[in-house]
């Protein structure tokens, strides 16, 4: 059997921090996905392949933010109100008339072009109209209720940067600057395996010592939420030869291979050795809990991530390792994961040197705030600790404990996926 690659020994047997692992991935992995042009309605969730520059300014012309009356500030008395005769009316979709407006106010409706000379617009709720005149109150600031041409996006500016994973609001901006189609990366194709002799499919009868495979369902769902095409490649047995041939055969046919199980230090954990035998192993032990055994390798140019077997470890390493790897592969700019300072309602001790995540639900306090409540079961195999909680309390690498009443970062699951 081939030796593990030198990279592994470069890090010795010590744990690599998650940040180091992300840096190594960023070095090793280049965006793979090709590019296609799609109409806006089909581009939701895709990654923008090149900057979108605005063909037109947004808005294209000065216009009214309210239903009201446009005036020139030079016609207003320093101490209001000012009575001005009304001349004309402009609705949305009508061009502003060229006629000079000196000494007059013009009726304007929301979205209507502002008369070129107007520099202030009064809301109709703030004025009184009688006998063809409008009484305008004092005290309004220059430019009030006027939406200036280009105030949202100026013509030619980058409206959306390459690498943005498109959301409906991004697509709306593309539409607003007149782009009917966008150049996006094609979806990544991810091949997904489970490993373990004990695994059966839900629906099959179980004999003693067998369990149902839940990781493929979990990972399939998480990956689909990340917007990739998931190809379910089934279960692999804990057998070195068949692992080697299955991984070698799948490499090259997908943008990324994902496995779960078989990467730890047990006698039947053969995934690492299989990666090293048919490709190269980049790292395999991370300072993250739950989730320590995570392997990353490259087989024939195809990256592979070997996630742990325990479902909670799969969930957490999917968020903190798999998600950034997928971003790398599709040239996506990932915003840092937002967390919220949360009052902690429990005591917890941890080892120094690894980032830990505690599954927690939120209890509403009498004062209107929230307190994070730890799930009673901490095991990495406890699936209900994921279904019965709302998110993760994150404890930093150098932290040793947390006490009730302290504040810690909380990451809601809803922000992860
Ligand atoms: P391993 O790292 O392969 O030793 O797996 C660690 C634990 O996760 C073991 O208890 C396995 O039975 C369990 N496990 C591994 N793969 C799966 C899976 N696909 N679904 C559910 N549990 C799994
Ligand atoms: Mg196993």
Estimate the mean pLDDT confidence.
95
Largest sheet: 6 strands, mixed
- Which value, in Å, is the CA radius of gyration? 30 Å
Secondary-structure content class: alpha/beta
Overall strand count: 28
Description of the molecule:
There is one protein chain. The radius of gyration is 30 Å and the shape is elongated. By secondary structure, it is an alpha/beta fold. Helix 2 packs parallel to helix 7 (311-329) and helix 5 (240-250) packs across helix 6. It has helices at 6-10, 18-28, 168-176, 215-225, 240-250, 271-278, 311-329, 384-387, 413-416; strands at residues 35-39, 52-53, 63-64, 68-71, 82-90, 105-108, 120-123, 128-130, 133-136, 146-147, 158-160, 181-185, 189-195, 199-200, 211-212, 229-236, 256-260, 280-285, 288-289, 293-299, 302-307, 340-344, 348-349, 355-364, 370-374, 391-395, 401-402, 407-412.
What's a concise summary of this model?
The protein is of the alpha/beta class and about 425 residues long.
Spell out the key features of this protein:
six-stranded mixed beta sheet; alpha/beta; 20% helix; binds adenosine monophosphate; 417 residues; 28 strands; 9 helices; single chain; binds magnesium ion
SSE map:
Blueprint (H helix, E strand, L loop, with lengths): L5 H5 L7 H11 L6 E5 L12 E2 L9 E2 L3 E4 L10 E9 L14 E4 L11 E4 L4 E3 L2 E4 L9 E2 L10 E3 L7 H9 L4 E5 L3 E7 L3 E2 L10 E2 L2 H11 L3 E8 L3 H11 L5 E5 L10 H8 L1 E6 L2 E2 L3 E7 L2 E6 L3 H19 L10 E5 L3 E2 L5 E10 L5 E5 L9 H4 L3 E5 L5 E2 L4 E6 H4 L1
Parallel strand pairs: 5-6, 13-16, 13-17, 14-15, 17-21, 19-24, 22-25
Antiparallel strand pairs: 1-12, 2-11, 3-10, 4-6, 4-7, 5-9, 8-9, 18-20, 20-21, 22-28, 23-27, 24-25, 24-26, 26-28
Helix pairs in contact: 2-7, 4-7, 5-6
Bound molecules: adenosine monophosphate (AMP) and magnesium ion.
The site of adenosine monophosphate (AMP) has 20 residues, from α4.
């Amino acid at each position: 059997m081939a030796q593990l690659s030198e990279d592994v020994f470069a890090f010795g047997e010590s744990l690599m921090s998650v940040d180091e692992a992300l840096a190594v991935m960023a070095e090793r992995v280049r965006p793979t996905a090709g590019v296609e042009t799609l109409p806006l309605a089909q581009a939701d969730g895709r990654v923008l392949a090149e900057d979108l520059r605005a063909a037109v300014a947004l808005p294209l012309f000065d216009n009214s933010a309210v239903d009201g009356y446009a005036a020139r500030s030079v016609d207003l008395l320093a101490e209001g109100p000012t009575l001005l005769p009304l001349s004309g009316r402009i609705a949305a979709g009508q061009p502003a008339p060229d006629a000079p407006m000196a000494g007059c106010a013009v009726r304007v409706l929301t979205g209507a072009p502002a008369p070129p000379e107007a520099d202030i617009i009064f809301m109709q709720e703030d004025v009184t109209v009688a006998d063809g005149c409008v009484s305008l109150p004092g005290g309004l600031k220059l430019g009030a209720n006027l939406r200036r041409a280009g105030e949202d996006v100026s013509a030619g500016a980058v409206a959306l940067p390459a690498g943005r994973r498109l959301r409906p609001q991004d697509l709306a901006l593309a539409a607003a600057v007149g782009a009917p189609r966008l150049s996006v990366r094609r979806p990544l194709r991810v091949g997904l395996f489970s490993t373990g002799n004990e695994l059966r499919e839900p629906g099959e009868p179980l004999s003693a010592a067998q369990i149902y495979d839940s990781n493929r369902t979990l990972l399939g769902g998480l990956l689909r939420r990340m917007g990739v095409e998931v190809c379910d490649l089934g279960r692999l047995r804990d057998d070195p030869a068949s692992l080697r041939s299955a991984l070698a055969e799948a490499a090259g046919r997908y943008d990324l291979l994902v496995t779960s199980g078989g990467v730890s230090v047990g006698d039947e954990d053969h995934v690492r050795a299989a990666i090293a035998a048919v490709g190269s192993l980049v790292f395999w032990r991370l300072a993250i809990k739950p989730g320590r055994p995570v392997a990353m390798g490259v087989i024939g140019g195809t990256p592979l991530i070997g996630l742990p077997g325990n479902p909670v470890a799969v969930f957490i390493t999917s968020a903190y390792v798999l998600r950034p790897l997928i971003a790398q592969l599709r040239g996506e700019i990932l915003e840092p994961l937002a967390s919220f300072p949360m009052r902690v309602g429990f005591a917890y001790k941890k080892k120094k040197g690894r980032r830990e995540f505690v599954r927690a639900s939120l209890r509403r306090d009498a004062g209107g705030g929230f307190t994070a409540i730890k799930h009673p079961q901490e095991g990495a195999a406890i699936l209900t600790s994921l279904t019965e909680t709302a998110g993760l309390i994150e404890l930093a690498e150098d932290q040793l404990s947390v006490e009730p009443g302290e504040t810690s970062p909380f990451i809601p699951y809803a922000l992860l996926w």
